[in-house]
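Give me structure tokens for this 150-residue protein.
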Amino acid sequence: MIKAYDDKGVESSLKGFNHLTLAVNDLTRSLEFYGNQLGFTAEVRWANGAYLSYGEAWLCLSLCLDKKEGMSEQYTHYAFNIDAAALAVLRDDPTLDIWQTNQSEGDSLYVRDPDGHQLEFHLGSLSSRLASLKEMPYQDLEWLSCHKNF
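Here you go.
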């Protein structure tokens, strides 16, 4: 569990690391690398991305469609678990640099840290994300693992 304390010694509401999303140029090449070379389990693939798991961690590969921008300016970000009350407080903070609105399963807030790193505070898990794909699949979704039987 990530433990952070404010200047009054109050524990943070972050609950740990959730997932990593990487912007990639070639989805097939990245799936082969993370699956075949690093041992991740490919869960699903769709036209513009894929979800993979490794133990309790999960990875999203997101196809970089805008070749003009550098990879660091794309969708790569680090996601942390957070509780709903803390997410509501963060959402009301006018000083946060919000870089995107949430468009996927699970409530999320996307912010940049002071150095420009893209962060996500997320309510949800790989299991809840995969379950949502049974109801509303992404374009060209292909199940690659046993999780298709939700």
